[in-house]
Design goal:
Blueprint: E1 3-4, H1 7-29, E2 34-40, H2 44-59, E3 63-69, H3 75-87, E4 93-96, H4 106-110, H5 124-131, H6 140-153, E5 160-164, H7 171-180, E6 184-188, H8 195-200, E7 204-207, E8 225-228, E9 232-235, E10 241-244, H9 249-255, E11 258-259, H10 266-285
Parallel strand pairs: 1-11, 2-3, 2-4, 5-6, 5-7, 7-8, 8-11
Antiparallel strand pairs: 9-10
The structure holds NADPH dihydro-nicotinamide-adenine-dinucleotide phosphate (NDP).
Subunit structure: Homodimer.
GO molecular function, one term: methenyltetrahydrofolate cyclohydrolase activity
Domain Tetrahydrofolate dehydrogenase/cyclohydrolase NAD(P)-binding: 139-284
């Protein structure tokens, strides 16, 4: 049976460390890091995410600024708000909750965020900086995955890693980060030939697909580390639903050396990393040493 990588406990440690550093910033420099979250429309999942981001931002002692806009908000109005937040000295991090309504060009909005305040790491400048191995704002979900991998393995150098999924928010930045750690990285996607064979070679498997339990244990190399990013809601008992990952946890746990559960794995790390990124952005903006 494999080691369960407890993202919930790890995230609590990260948040406690952030809270300690926020308190020190306030005491020593009178600075309070601030995170602005912009939500357009009333997508129920986005509402839940935004609420929990706001709650945790306050819990670590940061200022939380929530901007809830109507579904029919124009792109021009949204860009104006982003411009205002870019100029606001109390705001060190800006997050525009995705997805945005179809009438808004999401790329235009994300790229309007000042790159140094782009705590989601989606601005084209941060994508370029990460891709070229320079100091960037790193997207929160892959950053959380990397933190768990580093904590488990120490050095990742020379390990074979497979990232299943090539999205801009998870798969591609995850692959860049693993390459930065000197892994040999394969990025798999819906057109990959013989995915089971590709996965079988990997010492590290990161699954970010969005298909419930599509990776069976039989694909996993004995002793590999499995990071399951997927969050899929499936029918549960009676009329209830439950969350499962992209990996079939029960069978994969029989073979993996270590594995993240869903829920309680990657998910909690994402918000913890958002707070860590906001702290980093605040330190950079204030000319102070960055948190470790
Ligand atoms: P996307 O839908 O943007 O990307 C999915 C990727 O999976 C695509 O690259 C797609 O390939 C690939 N894919 C689809 N089907 C297959 C297949 N049969 N075999 C191999 N690859 C396949 O999803 P995201 O990256 O945004 O999210 C992935 C999952 O992670 C979702 O479940 C999401 O909910 C979850 N997630 C979790 C977060 C967290 O905090 N834990 C944060 C963000 C996402 P192609 O490009 O060829 O279409």
């Amino acid at each position: 049976m494999s080691e369960i990588l407890d993202g919930k406990a790890f995230a609590a440690e990260v948040r406690a460390k952030v809270a300690e550093q926020v308190a020190r910033l306030k005491d020593a420099h009178g600075i309070t890091p601030g995170l602005a979250v912009v939500l357009v429309g009333d997508d129920p999942a986005s509402q839940v995410y935004v609420r929990s981001k706001g709650k945790m931002t306050k819990e670590v002692g940061m200022s939380s600024f929530e901007h809830r806009l109507a579904e029919d908000t124009s792109e021009a109005d949204l860009l104006a708000l982003v411009g205002q937040l870019n100029e606001d000295p109390e705001v060190h991090g800006i997050l525009v909750q995705l997805p945005l309504p179809a009438h808004v060009d999401a790329d235009a909005v994300i790229n309007a965020i000042a790159p140094e305040k782009d705590v989601d790491g989606f601005h084209i400048s941060n994508v370029g900086l990460l891709g070229t191995g320079q100091k960037a704002m790193v997207p929160c979900t892959p950053l959380g995955c990397l933190m768990m991998l580093r904590a488990h393995h120490g050095s990742l150098s020379g390990l074979d890693a497979v990232v299943i999924g090539r999205s801009n928010i998870v798969g591609k930045p995850m692959a860049s980060l693993l390459l930065g750690e000197s892994c040999t990285v394969t990025i798999a996607h819906s057109r990959t030939k013989d995915l089971p064979e590709v996965v079988r070679r990997a010492d590290i498997v990161v699954a970010a697909v969005g298909r419930p339990q599509m990776v069976p244990g039989g694909w996993i190399k004995e002793g590999a580390t499995v990071i399951d990013v997927g969050i899929n809601r499936v029918p549960g008992e009676g009329d209830k639903t439950r969350l499962v990952g992209d990996v079939d946890f029960a069978s994969a746990a029989e073979r993996a050396g270590a594995i993240t559960p869903v829920p309680g794995g990657v998910g909690p790390m994402t918000i913890a990393c958002l707070l860590a990124n906001t702290l980093t952005a605040c330190c950079r903006a204030s000319g102070l040493p960055e948190p470790e």
